[in-house]
Amino acid sequence: MSDEYTPKIVAFCCKYCAYTAADLAGSMRLDYPTNIKIVQVLCTGRIDVLHILKAFEKGADAVYVAGCEPGDCHFLEGNYRAVKRMAYAKELLKEVGIEPERLEFFHIGASEGPAFAEAAKKMTDRALELGPSPLRK
Amino acid sequence: MIVGDRKPIEEIKEMLTPYKKILLVGCGTCISVCMTGGEKEVGILASELRIISDLEKKGWEITEDTIQRQCEREYIEPLKEKFDQADVVMSMACGVGVQYMAEVFPHKIVLPAVNTTFYGTNVAEGEWQERCAGCGDCVLDKTLGICPVARCSKGLFNGPCGGTDKGKCEVNKDLDCAWYLIYNRLKEHGKLDMLDEVMSIRSWKSSLHGGPRKRVREEAQK
Ligand code: SF4
Ligand code: SF4
């Protein structure tokens, strides 16, 4: 199946850390899957469960939210809030019949280009393992 | 405000199974502030229902709307066209909203998506607590602001009972004993002597025991 299946992955990245890390991963010419669609947000605290549900509704195979390291949020606690909301979003996914593992949160500091590439690989591998989202079958 | 919880998804699914075109209506007042049935929660439930419909081939078409208040006719009436187009309406308001929408548009069935639970307040981010049970004969003057009907697990008027335990209630150790709170409150205000007065047996006619309540204000009528 994985021959023709390229997972669609949406990554919500905060401007101050994870997005900067994504930029850095690019400048460092690190190899990471190209099927990741990055959405830059000012802070992961802005991400609502509705954004997550919509991404799945529109056909994402996996979604992840990447924000600053604990204690490093530019807006003090946006990343903590995001972690809690993702736990809630996982519950909602479970109740509608989508594997909650398709959603993840990563803490990625601004200088961590390699961690960004690793998260992208990890989510791609996971989406390959789980197969296409049940909504795309 | 009126506080409620969204019903379990299984219950909602079962209610909606016979229908295709569903109008999901939120309420922008209490139930919105308690984060159960406002515009955002309507969006979340609608998204969940669309996903379920896709996965389980339910064929649901979901239309979303949120009005300022479902307990007032003037906010409900503009929904007429959307009501007409739907097979069924699901309300995310409290039980008042569900009933009043069905009264304004009697030709449609209105289903509840929410379990209405209590009159309460938002004590901290993400936490709501019950404060009043709408008993119709307020005694907050005798307790200096702590309701024995809604906040004492046994609704005692001359508490505490023997189960009070270091400020907590025997019914649930997570609950403050209302009568412990009342005692401290009276003490704080130097009015402990108020406890010497036995509160008499009251009539509960003003509460639901006298049948559904109604208030008419002639000065406000046409
Ligand atoms: S005594 Fe009755 S009206 Fe007063 S707060 Fe308690 S339940 Fe509400
Ligand atoms: S312990 Fe306090 S709150 Fe609980 S039932 Fe007794 S008097 Fe009421």
Give an overview of the whole structure.
The complex is a heterodimer of chains A (137) and B (222). Chain A is 41% helix and 17% strand. Chain A is α/β, with parallel strands linked by helices and 137 residues long. Chain A contains four helices and four strands; from the N terminus they run E-H-E-H-E-H-E-H. The longest helix of chain A has 19 residues, at 78-96. With 222 residues, chain B is an alpha/beta fold. Chain B folds into two domains: 2-117, 3-Layer(aba) Sandwich (Rossmann fold); 133-206, no CATH class. Chain B is 31% helix and 23% strand. Chain B contains nine helices and nine strands. In chain B, strand 6 and strand 7 (127-132) form a beta hairpin. The radius of gyration of chain B is 22 Å and the shape is elongated. The mean pLDDT of chain B is 96. Chain A binds chain B through residues 48-50, 53-54, 56-57, 92, 95-98, 134-135, and chain B through 9, 40, 43-44, 47-48, 50-52, 54-56. Bound molecules: iron/sulfur cluster (2 copies). One iron/sulfur cluster (SF4) binds at residues 152-154, 156, 159-161, 163-164, 169-171, 177-179 of chain B.
Structure at a glance:
The complex is a heterodimer of chains A (137) and B (222). Chain A has 137 residues and is of the alpha/beta class.
Q: Topology, please?
A:
The complex is a heterodimer of chains A (137) and B (222).
Chain A: E1 9-14, H1 18-27, E2 36-41, H2 49-57, E3 62-67, H3 78-96, E4 103-107, H4 113-130
Parallel strand pairs in A: 1-2, 1-3, 3-4
Chain B: E1 2-6, H1 9-16, E2 21-27, H2 30-33, H3 39-56, E3 61-67, H4 73-76, H5 80-85, E4 88-91, H6 95-104, E5 110-112, E6 114-124, E7 127-132, H7 140-143, H8 148-151, E8 168-169, E9 172-176, H9 178-188
Parallel strand pairs in B: 2-3, 2-4, 4-5
Antiparallel strand pairs in B: 1-6, 6-7, 8-9
The structure holds iron/sulfur cluster (2 copies).
Strand content of chain A: 15-25%
CATH C-level label of the largest domain in chain B: Alpha Beta
The largest sheet of chain A has its strands arranged as: 2-1-3-4
User: What's the overall average pLDDT of chain B, rounded?
Assistant: 96
* Straight-line distance between termini of chain B: 29 Å
The CATH homologous superfamily of chain A: Lumazine/riboflavin synthase
Give the tally of β-strands of chain A: 4
